[in-house]
Amino acid sequence: xxxxxxxxxxxxxxxxxxxxxxxxxxxxxxxxxxxxxxxxxxxxxxxxxxxxxxxxxxxxxxxxxxxxxxxxxxxxxxxxxxxxxxxxxxxxxxxxxxxxxxxxxxxxxxxxxxxxxxxxxxxxxxxxxxxxxxxxxxxxxxxxxxxxxxxxxxxxxxxxxxxxxxxxxxxxxxxxxxxxxxxxxxxxxxxxxxxxxxxxxxxxxxxxxxxxxxxxxxxxxxxxxxxxxxxxxxxxxxxxxxxxxxxxxxxxxxxxxxxxxxxxxxxx
Length: 268
Fold this sequence. Notes:
This protein is of the alpha+beta class and about 270 residues long. About 25% of the residues lie in helices and about 30% in strands. The strands form eight sheets. Strands 7, 8, 11 and 15 form a four-stranded antiparallel β-sheet that branches. Strands 12-13-14 form a three-stranded antiparallel β-sheet, with no helix packed on it. Helix 1 (about 1-25) packs antiparallel against helix 2 (about 230-265).
């Protein structure tokens, strides 16, 4: 009976964590460049139950297999889906979308940002602005870096970005090139919120190739989040139903335990 409690409790915890993940995805549907999280739910190892000492006379005491016992489930991991999001035209010069030309399974490209403390973070959110000193920054104030690893100074919002990331000012003078980092294993990156990711294995190498590019930049566009609203809502409802089913099982086990305790107590 107690094993049943453990099983349904683990199921409720797993579905609660999945629900939190799906809720986060829905909350970021409108966040440019947001990559949805996906879950992997696994079962704990099964146990083989045996009845021991089925014969009362030695040496015939043996173990008789009864069957397998499931020990519950858990949400093993929460991984990001790096599928390319659709592009939305904004016609704002400070909006830049990164269009990856290679499958996400072969790695992923990111804009490189830096805060005032020199910490490097990565993002696919190209919703930028120009600060009072003329530097291109994210909405959180992180500097957008150029290919030399320096904050990109554009002067004003009247700048131009070509598909390779080369930036020119309103006079046509070269300003620099937007740095784009390449992550061979993007799943190793850690989410920090506000569309920012960090690498725990050192800085990512630059993805700017010497000849040709495997990505394109589109000025005046933003990459939408890759959250599928209809699919996420369906998964969320299924998760609720599974949680409620486990909850009803928990109540049934609790009623059985109460009945057992009361009846055994009266027999004693």
